[in-house]
């Protein structure tokens, strides 16, 4: 998605999930601003939107689950 990404994944309610990104495969990952994301019961899907910096053609994400 150009201009922003809106990934989502399954999550356990009440648990913190840290979202990380990297701008190229093999690059150094960083935490997305906003820190942890919590799935509030009965929510089982987490969604977020990330507008990458200008000039970043793509971005890869991973969620660190508890």
Concise structural overview:
The chain is mainly β and 66 residues long.
Helix count equals 0
| Rough outline | elongated
Number of domains: 1
Span between N and C termini?
28 Å
* Helix amount: under 10%
Number of beta-strand segments: 5
Q: Strand order within the widest sheet? A: 3-2-5
| Computed structural class | mainly beta
Strand content: 35-45%
User: What's the multimeric state?
Assistant: single chain
Order of helices and strands: EEEEE
Largest sheet: 3 strands, antiparallel
Average of pLDDT: 78
Q: Roughly how many Å is the radius of gyration? A: 12 Å
Outline the low-pLDDT stretches.
none
Give an overview in words.
Strand 2 (16-22) and strand 3 (30-38) form a beta hairpin. The protein has 66 residues and is an all-beta fold. It has strands spanning 8-10, 16-22, 30-38, 45-47, 60-64. Helix content is 0%, strand content 41%. The termini are far apart. The chain has one domain. The strands form two sheets. A three-stranded antiparallel sheet has the order 3-2-5, with no helix packed on it. A two-stranded antiparallel sheet has the order 1-4.
């Amino acid at each position: 998605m150009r201009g922003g990404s809106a990934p989502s994944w399954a999550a356990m309610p009440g648990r913190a999930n840290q979202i990380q990104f990297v701008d190229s495969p093999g690059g150094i990952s960083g935490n997305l601003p906003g820190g942890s994301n919590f799935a509030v019961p009965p929510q089982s899907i987490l969604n977020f939107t990330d507008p990458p910096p200008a000039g970043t053609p793509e971005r890869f994400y991973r969620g660190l689950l508890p």
